[in-house]
């Protein structure tokens, strides 16, 4: 047992950090720190910088542009990226559909999609959830019917994150209505510009628009856009959801926020002195930092296990990472609310025009608190994670 | 970075797990509790036979040169089996003082007896008003000729009844809460002026309140610098905290396992109660709490070797906080999920709960350590 990073790993961390310092556009970083939404342009610009460096799809196999890093290197890269902070690669392309395509797709599909995913030439979105199918995803109803050399797609997806930017969607569609729930589903990809696709924005409680409803009305999709085998889509979806094990803890994100809280708490006054000098506040902050430390170690245990025994089947420990990681993220936003106190109320009055520098940092704190309620809902809600632990770990 | 045990450590784990499976089922434990001092000399000698009592001592001193990980393995196993024997008091704490501050002569006088199981130790530190502050010492040690005279009262001294030697903290200089002026002394338990009142503790261990009245000891009884040993005490107590964290992880593992087995078999409403989702989610949360605790126990074990005392203490305090929160949740819910049977002495789960609870209040509780981390500038 040895929890120290090797010299090489430490040097790698320094290299990564330096690259971020030199290359992340400062305004992008500032907006991330302040919890603001980034424009499509800002995100794509940064991802292309990352891709040019060869780090855009770091965890892919080398032949498709990956880095060949060890599990520990991936961990370090993610942590530094999250805590710098800079936008993480677009998960829908890089972490979700990319691995499905290079694992289950044919050569033609790999050639067609993978390089474009890496360079974000296509912005992908995830068409899984439907109004009637959230946690019980396998009950989904969106239909794809084979007509000659086309799929005809009808139905509705919802909660589709950033579909307003998307060029492509990967979609779970029912292709065999007679089969049992999980058996008749296929994994089909197509252009969001196709005729019959309508995107309607949904405003979330923070006031932002990051999710959408997506309607399909007789959308025609070439048959070759099926990934893998017909009616095996559920297996690919499970593979996709189980793939993202350690990123979900978002330790780096919470670390960055805790540093920010400590910094702000040294400036904002309460009772005539900085709020950090209030013992009750300080202890709450310490409590959160301790939970995060424990989570970081739990995550490292999973990373080390992967490094040693390979990424076999999904590790139920990832449910621990999801539950604790989301709880801690939410706690950090609560602590920020506590720091800001009565100035939580103004509703982004100044916008991002720099007109009120002194109060700029307050604008996104309440929205960020509201927005972060999502993290225990999506990606398999925390209740679903508890079901997984009960079944897969405890055998209940 | 590597969380796996090496070959030797795996063997160590197998050997202690094997020994305890053979000799420490719940029924045997009840019998050991009735023996003198509340634990079994026979089991103690078996631990000695397997070399476990010599584990942390240097090879030059007759030990096995084991480090933090080895102690963690043993303490986890002792926790899992709810062991009563004074490993913490004798090997971890007593041994710790001798390892860090003992002269060759002191080691020669005490270590062989620890290793062969013939002698046990006890740490007489807690005072009526000191609570968790290690520097709060009212007991005095006054110079007399070459030696010292000790006066004071010590409370809840684990293994105080059986120990052959007491390790006593006493003030040689200054006021009750001064950080300087504290010494550590090896006092024979049968020295003139030592009186003991023994009793079983809530978790089935045994402790004693000890009064020292004009106890005279020689110059060879001083461990380290008699006027400035707070750092030494903190170091050894930190090691004790790390060991307690590991013991608690073992206790939590067994509590969760026992509880899950119970709810799989207990039937109400015509089905196993483990089929109710509210209980499943509770058990899942117990698992999460236990895993977070395990991570921090490992972290604390590593931190035991940190050169920088402040970083070491901060990390171990953080671990004690996580362990304290986790053990409270796991312990309480283990009882809850057992229903009425969890309230009885007959079922073993309650005994795990009680030991866990006492660990929270040993060498600093959750609030105490949380405050230390907070005042020390945090952990990020
Ligand atoms: C901000 C945001 C972004 C999203 N982005 C995407 C996206 O890009 N693409 C996409 O496909 N989806 C996306 N989702 C959808 C997300 O995956 C679903 O919200 C999630 O699966 C939960 O489904 P639901 O909202 O229908 O809630 P429901 O499934 O209706 O759940 C409601 C409540 O019941 C609980 N519950 C449900 N089943 C059980 C059970 N068996 N046991 C115990 N409790 C249960 C849930 O935990 C929850 O608390 C996003 C969601 C949000 C909030
Ligand atoms: C100190 C004490 C005094 C008592 N005094 C009396 C008395 O004077 N007279 C008398 O008749 N009884 C008495 N009782 C018995 C008491 O009413 C029972 O303990 C209680 O009804 C629970 O039953 P159980 O212990 O069999 O637990 P179980 O019913 O086996 O329950 C075990 C666990 O499963 C949970 N559980 C059970 N069913 C469900 C479900 N459907 N959904 C979710 N969770 C479930 C319970 O909440 C509990 O956590 C006493 C109990 C105690 C501990």
TrEMBL record, chain A:
<dbReference type="GO" id="GO:0050660">
    <property type="term" value="F:flavin adenine dinucleotide binding"/>
</dbReference>
<dbReference type="Pfam" id="PF02770">
    <property type="entry name" value="Acyl-CoA_dh_M"/>
</dbReference>
<feature type="domain" description="Acyl-CoA oxidase/dehydrogenase middle">
    <location>
        <begin position="125"/>
        <end position="219"/>
    </location>
</feature>
<dbReference type="InterPro" id="IPR009075">
    <property type="entry name" value="AcylCo_DH/oxidase_C"/>
</dbReference>
<keyword id="KW-0560">Oxidoreductase</keyword>
<dbReference type="GO" id="GO:0016627">
    <property type="term" value="F:oxidoreductase activity, acting on the CH-CH group of donors"/>
</dbReference>
<protein>
    <submittedName>
        <fullName>Pimeloyl-CoA dehydrogenase, large subunit</fullName>
    </submittedName>
</protein>
<keyword id="KW-0285">Flavoprotein</keyword>
<dbReference type="Pfam" id="PF00441">
    <property type="entry name" value="Acyl-CoA_dh_1"/>
</dbReference>
<keyword id="KW-0274">FAD</keyword>
<dbReference type="InterPro" id="IPR052161">
    <property type="entry name" value="Mycobact_Acyl-CoA_DH"/>
</dbReference>
<dbReference type="InterPro" id="IPR013786">
    <property type="entry name" value="AcylCoA_DH/ox_N"/>
</dbReference>
<comment type="similarity">
    <text>Belongs to the acyl-CoA dehydrogenase family.</text>
</comment>
<dbReference type="InterPro" id="IPR046373">
    <property type="entry name" value="Acyl-CoA_Oxase/DH_mid-dom_sf"/>
</dbReference>
<feature type="domain" description="Acyl-CoA dehydrogenase/oxidase N-terminal">
    <location>
        <begin position="6"/>
        <end position="119"/>
    </location>
</feature>
<dbReference type="InterPro" id="IPR006091">
    <property type="entry name" value="Acyl-CoA_Oxase/DH_mid-dom"/>
</dbReference>
<dbReference type="InterPro" id="IPR037069">
    <property type="entry name" value="AcylCoA_DH/ox_N_sf"/>
</dbReference>
<dbReference type="Pfam" id="PF02771">
    <property type="entry name" value="Acyl-CoA_dh_N"/>
</dbReference>
<dbReference type="InterPro" id="IPR036250">
    <property type="entry name" value="AcylCo_DH-like_C"/>
</dbReference>
<feature type="domain" description="Acyl-CoA dehydrogenase/oxidase C-terminal">
    <location>
        <begin position="231"/>
        <end position="394"/>
    </location>
</feature>
<dbReference type="InterPro" id="IPR017617">
    <property type="entry name" value="Pimeloyl_CoA_dehydrogenase_lsu"/>
</dbReference>
<dbReference type="InterPro" id="IPR009100">
    <property type="entry name" value="AcylCoA_DH/oxidase_NM_dom_sf"/>
</dbReference>
UniProtKB/TrEMBL annotation, chain B:
<dbReference type="Pfam" id="PF00441">
    <property type="entry name" value="Acyl-CoA_dh_1"/>
</dbReference>
<dbReference type="InterPro" id="IPR009075">
    <property type="entry name" value="AcylCo_DH/oxidase_C"/>
</dbReference>
<keyword id="KW-0274">FAD</keyword>
<keyword id="KW-0560">Oxidoreductase</keyword>
<dbReference type="Pfam" id="PF02771">
    <property type="entry name" value="Acyl-CoA_dh_N"/>
</dbReference>
<dbReference type="InterPro" id="IPR017616">
    <property type="entry name" value="Pimeloyl_CoA_dehydrogenase_ssu"/>
</dbReference>
<comment type="similarity">
    <text>Belongs to the acyl-CoA dehydrogenase family.</text>
</comment>
<feature type="domain" description="Acyl-CoA dehydrogenase/oxidase N-terminal">
    <location>
        <begin position="6"/>
        <end position="117"/>
    </location>
</feature>
<dbReference type="InterPro" id="IPR036250">
    <property type="entry name" value="AcylCo_DH-like_C"/>
</dbReference>
<feature type="domain" description="Acyl-CoA oxidase/dehydrogenase middle">
    <location>
        <begin position="123"/>
        <end position="209"/>
    </location>
</feature>
<dbReference type="InterPro" id="IPR013786">
    <property type="entry name" value="AcylCoA_DH/ox_N"/>
</dbReference>
<dbReference type="InterPro" id="IPR006091">
    <property type="entry name" value="Acyl-CoA_Oxase/DH_mid-dom"/>
</dbReference>
<dbReference type="GO" id="GO:0050660">
    <property type="term" value="F:flavin adenine dinucleotide binding"/>
</dbReference>
<dbReference type="Pfam" id="PF02770">
    <property type="entry name" value="Acyl-CoA_dh_M"/>
</dbReference>
<protein>
    <submittedName>
        <fullName>Pimeloyl-CoA dehydrogenase, small subunit</fullName>
    </submittedName>
</protein>
<dbReference type="GO" id="GO:0003995">
    <property type="term" value="F:acyl-CoA dehydrogenase activity"/>
</dbReference>
<keyword id="KW-0285">Flavoprotein</keyword>
<dbReference type="InterPro" id="IPR046373">
    <property type="entry name" value="Acyl-CoA_Oxase/DH_mid-dom_sf"/>
</dbReference>
<dbReference type="InterPro" id="IPR009100">
    <property type="entry name" value="AcylCoA_DH/oxidase_NM_dom_sf"/>
</dbReference>
<dbReference type="InterPro" id="IPR037069">
    <property type="entry name" value="AcylCoA_DH/ox_N_sf"/>
</dbReference>
<feature type="domain" description="Acyl-CoA dehydrogenase/oxidase C-terminal">
    <location>
        <begin position="233"/>
        <end position="375"/>
    </location>
</feature>
